[in-house]
Design a protein that fits this description.
Elements lengths: L10 H12 L5 H9 L9 E9 L5 E10 L2 E12 L11 E6 L3 E2 L2 H11 L3 H4 L17 H34 L6 H22 L5 H25 L11 H21 L13 E6 L4 E5 H23 L1 H11 L1 H6 L4 H27 L6 H16 L4 H21 L5 H15 L14
Antiparallel strand pairs: 1-2, 2-3, 3-4, 4-5, 6-7
């Protein structure tokens, strides 16, 4: 009789090993959050030497690092961070304590100041365990639904940023059939100027006046609109008759020039303007989880909706809108019937620059932490949103921004946040393969 050979690794043993390994190792998101706190204690370049998971009832890790200051090694130090949950827990991003080799465990006031310095939301940092407060309520069956609603509110603000910048991309592409990769840098300029304007209002004691903030918005959008017009007048108008990749290469050069120019003028440090209208409102609660929204989120939604309605009215009811649609159909034919193509294209660049500045203003006053590199990744994500929605379609740009904002926010909430950019550009890849015209785009018939 034939006997089956014994299996060395029965399935139940593999399952046990997998379950044991689930709680081992270091959470990459927790390590990245702890790494972000090192500059509060040491300046200069940092080299991570070791990342070690610590024992205890709550997950903790210790980063051992070395700092160099002007080429002179300053020694080896460590920082330890303790979190409220493990890999698959809802509190895995909630920091509950911090300790260093020189200060020991931070006291409550020190921990609070560290939270303010880092600019991280309180929901991710929580409160130190030494603080007195009400005991948390047990989780109810409504908590997952409330958490879902909270992510919808968070996604709306992200969608506004991507949607506004995607509108700038789609307007230029709709009339020229070319992608202006320097549009993200106009967002960076808008964010930096908004941060400077907010700082000036704060020093003048006018930061709490909505009209003063609105004046900063309008000034920044006007300045960036001029930048967009100048960009077309000095660069793209001279390359309009070329039928190769020269305009795309010129856009890449402009992007780098804007980045390096801002870095040389203002340095590489982050700007953290005060949050605008940061009053928090509780919408729904089951005792364990509360759905909240900021006043600024409502203002951002209203501003984005107003700008989109204004753009729709301009495109449908004005001479510029008719000229833009004519050039989008056929530039040569539009020129033959008397449309001033150069002026229409320049106006399109100005409108796109103003919308990009609005996206930058949202980043500066809601998210903070703007620098010369702010527009790079945001620009590519907004381009992905424009392609997903159907580049060349104004409603498609807003739809693509909403879809990308939802995907990125929900992935960050339910899965590893470190992979959110991979997911965003993976979505772009899928659309380019299976639906290259996007959700609301139309196949172009003029060869571009």
């Amino acid at each position: 009789m034939h006997r089956r050979p014994p299996r060395l690794f029965p399935p139940f043993l593999l399952l046990i090993v997998a379950l044991l390994l689930t709680g081992c190792g270091v959470d990459g998101d927790q390590a990245a959050l702890c790494r972000k706190l090192i500059p509060a204690f040491d300046s200069g370049p940092v080299t991570i030497l070791d990342t070690e998971a610590l024992g205890g009832d709550e997950p903790a890790l210790r980063l051992t690092y070395r700092t160099d200051n002007g080429g002179a090694e300053t020694g080896t130090h460590w920082i330890a961070c303790r979190f409220g949950g493990r890999f698959f827990d809802s509190r895995r991003h909630e920091l509950v304590a911090v300790a260093t080799d020189r200060m020991g465990r931070l006291r409550p006031m020190q921990f609070t100041m560290l939270r303010v310095w880092a600019g991280l939301p309180a929901a991710r940092l929580g409160l130190p365990p030494e603080s007195s407060g009400p005991e948390p309520q047990p989780r109810t069956d409504w908590a997952p639904l409330l958490f879902f609603l909270q992510q919808l509110i968070n996604a709306a603000t992200v969608a506004c940023v991507y949607g506004l910048l995607a509108l700038g991309y789609t307007l230029v592409y709709g009339i020229l059939g070319q992608i202006n990769l320097a549009m993200g840098e106009l967002t960076m300029i808008g964010a930096m100027l908004t941060a400077m304007g907010a700082a000036a209002l704060g020093m003048a004691g006018l930061g709490s006046l909505p009209l003063a903030v609105l004046g900063v918005f309008a000034t920044v959008m006007a300045f960036t609109a001029v930048q967009g017009w100048t960009m077309d007048r000095l660069v793209f108008r001279r390359l309009r008759r070329t039928h190769n990749h020269t305009p795309l290469i010129a856009a890449v050069g402009l992007s780098i020039a804007y980045q390096e120019g801002m870095r040389l003028l203002h340095g590489a440090r982050d700007w953290w303007p005060a949050q605008f209208l940061a009053d928090r409102h509780e919408l729904l609660s089951d005792g364990a989880f509360t759905v909240t929204a900021l006043t600024s989120q409502a203002v951002i939604l209203l501003m984005t909706g107003g700008l989109y309605a204004l753009l729709w009215a301009i495109m449908q009811r004005t001479a510029y809108g008719r000229a833009h649609r004519a050039c989008a159909d056929d530039v040569g034919a539009a020129e033959l019937v008397g449309v001033d193509v150069d002026r229409t294209v320049a106006t399109t660049f100005a409108v796109g620059g103003a919308l990009a500045a609005a996206a930058g203003a949202v980043i500066a006053l809601y998210y903070g932490g703007v620098n010369f590199y702010t527009g790079y990744l945001v620009g590519f994500k907004a381009l992905a949103a424009a392609v997903v929605g159907g580049i060349g379609s104004v409603p498609g740009a807003m739809l693509g921004g909403a879809l990308l904002g939802l995907v990125e926010t929900f992935w960050s909430a339910y899965f590893a946040i470190a992979y959110k950019d991979i997911v965003a550009f993976g979505l772009l890849t899928l659309f380019l393969i299976y639906r290259p015209d996007g959700l609301m785009g139309h196949r172009r018939g003029r060869g571009d």
